[in-house]
Automatic annotation (TrEMBL):
Gene Ontology CC terms, in alphabetical order: cytoplasm
Cross-referenced InterPro entries: Ald_DH/histidinol_DH, Ald_DH_C, Ald_DH_CS_CYS, Ald_DH_CS_GLU, Ald_DH_N, Aldehyde_DH_dom, Aldehyde_DH_NAD(P)
Name this polypeptide is given: Aldehyde dehydrogenase
Active site residues according to the UniProt entry: 219, 253
Similarity section: Belongs to the aldehyde dehydrogenase family.
Recorded GO MF terms: aldehyde dehydrogenase (NAD+) activity
Limits of the Aldehyde dehydrogenase domain: 11-445
Gene3D superfamilies assigned: Aldehyde Dehydrogenase, Chain A, domain 1, Aldehyde Dehydrogenase, Chain A, domain 2
GO biological process: aldehyde metabolic process
Record's keyword terms, sorted: NAD, Oxidoreductase
Organism name: Litoribacter ruber
Pfam families in alphabetical order: Aldedh
Length: 478
């Protein structure tokens, strides 16, 4: 971008931020009805433009219409409906008990809007991951500046149109562009920053936020493992894993990243995985490439990254059990299953974020825990087992943002579960009430009666009585 254009953009960002800063003070007093009107207007726009959302996602990476409806549009509408249903309850002050030492006083938590917010969203679910945090920001009474990914330009353009048609500029604004746009925005002292993307960029966002002591929600990623125990239902497990992995061509932050299969069932399980791929996408090769139900890799750069991981694994001894076909011209990569995988391969240390699924075997449950704990804490962990001991052992000895038992990724759809990672895979929680709280300050309020306070017993000067009382307090309450 030319210096002149950068200068103009900087002015626009400065002006918009100041506008939001002033408007955020007014929004602190916004009522449930005012916030609900904005959410309802957003909901109606989405319903009216469902076809446009499908077109934009297909233009960006040939995302199937059914996947768009389920993983983009439905999830956003569900989030709006949940907020509208619960907004009154979420906004109400929450009473808390006081200890006996504060007898006569009352206390409560007041949820106040943090103020200005910045939402930086990725390309893999470019509509849903931009609008879901926006719903939380509006519900909490915040302003929002959005920065969608430049890698999904058609969806970004549609989001810009949505913002212009639904919101006033001092409520919600959107800036498109490359990394320099995000850099300019991150220099501003936002009250809250909500970022969804890679751990690498998450570190950059957190460093920028630290300069202004802005609070953050970081929805990142990682290598989400899948454990297939020897007593698992193989058909059920294979069906669920194939859907969760190859939906969106594997470009999902909570997609199964690698499989850990008990050595006694690996052959029949892989045969069932192959069978399920055929059922969902067609037979190997050209049939899958022609399938309207299978998405493409987002761009050439990411296709090359996936090809590099695949080549490195094969060079170091991995075998292709299924798939492996590619077409760089249309960013196609066939669903691919790798066996004979070792820790020496890059694919076991980098988040794959594509339709390649490495398979490793195990015999001892402790080996599972060791492998998982040797890597950064994942965003999700999946266990297929009917053995409660196995489930409890894995849950107790590993850490992850979320867990599904006998299923994959569907915990994301539960409105009453917090969604987020741990350390490398994320900071903070989102969705529903958790999203509302992410954009809210939980303000502690204590109200004391006039003329009363237990602190009077400890006002200076400190004499014999005060010392006796303090010792008594330590004895009783210490």
């Amino acid at each position: 971008m030319e210096n002149r254009n950068l200068s103009k953009l900087q002015e626009e960002i400065n002006e918009t931020f100041e506008l939001h800063k002033q408007h955020a003070l007014k929004l602190r007093l916004s009522t449930k009805e005012e916030r609900a009107r904005k959410l309802s207007k957003l909901r109606e726009w989405i319903k009216k433009n469902k076809a446009e959302i499908r077109k934009a996602l297909y233009a960006d990476f040939k995302k199937p219409a059914t996947e768009v409806d389920l993983t983009e549009t439905y999830l956003v509408l569900s989030e709006i409906n949940l907020a509208l249903k619960n907004l009154s309850k979420w906004m109400q002050p929450k009473k808390v008990k006081n200890p006996i030492t504060l007898t006569g006083s009352s206390a409560y938590i007041q949820y106040e809007p943090k103020g200005t917010s910045l939402i930086i969203s990725p390309w893999n679910f470019p509509f849903q991951l931009a609008v879901t945090p926006l719903v939380s920001a509006i519900a909490a009474g915040c302003t929002a500046i959005m920065k969608p990914s430049e890698s999904s330009p058609h969806t970004s353009a549609l989001l810009r149109r949505m913002v212009m048609e639904v919101f006033s500029r001092d409520d919600v604004a959107l800036f498109e562009g490359e990394v320099e746009v995000a850099t300019m925005l991150l220099e501003k002292p936002f009250d809250h920053i909500f970022f969804t993307g890679s751990p690498k960029v998450g570190r950059i966002v957190m460093k920028a936020a630290a300069e202004n002591l802005s609070s953050v929600t970081l929805e990142l990623g990682g290598k989400s493992p899948v454990i297939i125990d020897k007593n698992a239902n193989l058909e059920d497990a294979a069906q669920k894993i194939v859907w969760a992995k190859f939906m969106n061509a594997g470009q999902t932050c909570i997609a199964p990243d690698y499989l850990m299969v008990h050595s006694s069932i690996v052959d029949p399980f892989l045969a069932e995985v192959k069978n399920q791929i055929h059922k969902m996408y067609g037979s190997k090769g050209k049939a899958i490439a022609k399938s309207k139900d299978y998405a493409r890799i987002i761009n050439e750069r990411h296709h090359k990254q996936l090809s590099r991981l695949l080549s490195d694994a094969r060079l170091k001894g991995a075998s292709i059990f299924f798939g492996g076909d590619t077409d760089e011209e249309v960013n196609y990569l066939e669903p691919t299953i790798l066996t004979q995988v070792t820790e020496a391969m890059d694919i076991m240390h980098e988040e794959i974020f594509g339709p390649i699924l490495p398979v490793v075997t195990y015999t001892d449950i402790e080996d599972i825990v060791h492998t998982i704990n040797s890597k950064p804490k994942p965003l999700a962990l999946y266990i297929f087992s009917d053995e409660q001991f196995v489930i409890d052992f894995v849950l107790s000895n590993t850490s992850s943002g979320g867990v599904c038992i006998n299923d994959c990724i569907v915990h994301y759809m539960s409105p009453d579960l917090p969604f987020g990672g741990v350390n490398e895979s994320g900071i903070g929680k989102a969705h529903g009430h958790f999203g509302f709280k992410a954009f809210s300050n939980e303000k502690a309020v204590l109200k004391q009666r006039v003329g009363m306070t237990p602190a009077k017993m400890f006002y200076p000067p400190y004499g014999f009585a005060e010392k006796r009382i303090s010792k008594l307090f330590l004895k009783i309450f210490g």
